[in-house]
Each structure stands twice: as structure tokens, then as C-alpha cells.
Amino acid sequence: MKQTYKWLPVIKKENCTGCGLCVEACTPKCLEVVDGVVVLTLPILCGSEEHCISPCNYEAIEMKWVPAPGRDYIGLWHEK
Ligand code: SF4
Ligand code: SF4
Predict the structure, then answer these.
(1) What is the pTM for the complete model shown?
(2) Whose CA is nearest to atom 6 of ligand 1?
């Protein structure tokens, strides 16, 4: 079976200050600050459109193809 990947924000914990600006920028509310660091709590709702990237002043988020189960109509996917 082919592995599916979703284009998702990956947080560099060491750079994140927990300021919450990316959380405010995320319309579907998939991000949450937990213990002072942002976490992608609802990847299934992520639209992969990168609105959370530019508000971050600490380069603490980057988009990557992340192995994810299944395939949803929300967000960008590929398989290989
Ligand atoms: S890519 Fe969009 S939907 Fe996904 S976490 Fe960032 S702002 Fe939210
Ligand atoms: S905007 Fe950047 S520093 Fe602020 S919570 Fe989000 S990832 Fe962390």
C-alpha cells in the first residue's frame, strides 16, 4: 500500500516562544499553545495553506510533507 503524506506545519520547539500569533492566524483552529509551545492539535483540519508561517517572528514553523494516515479532502496530499 502506498504511504500518504500531508503538507503540514512542523514546529521547531526550540525556537517557539508560545506567543500565539500563529494560533490566531489559523482559521480552522488546528494549533494550540500547550505548556508554552505551539502544537498542531488538529492536523486533520489543516488546510495546508500556510497562514501560520508568516506571523511567526522566530522561524519556528516550517511546512513539510508528513506521513499521515488515509487521505482527506482537506489540505494538500501526495502519495508515493
Ligand atoms: S497551514 Fe493553515 S490550517 Fe494548517 S495550521 Fe497553518 S494556518 Fe492552520
Ligand atoms: S508564532 Fe512562532 S513563536 Fe509564536 S507560538 Fe507560533 S510558532 Fe511559536
Answers:
(1) 0.94
(2) 52
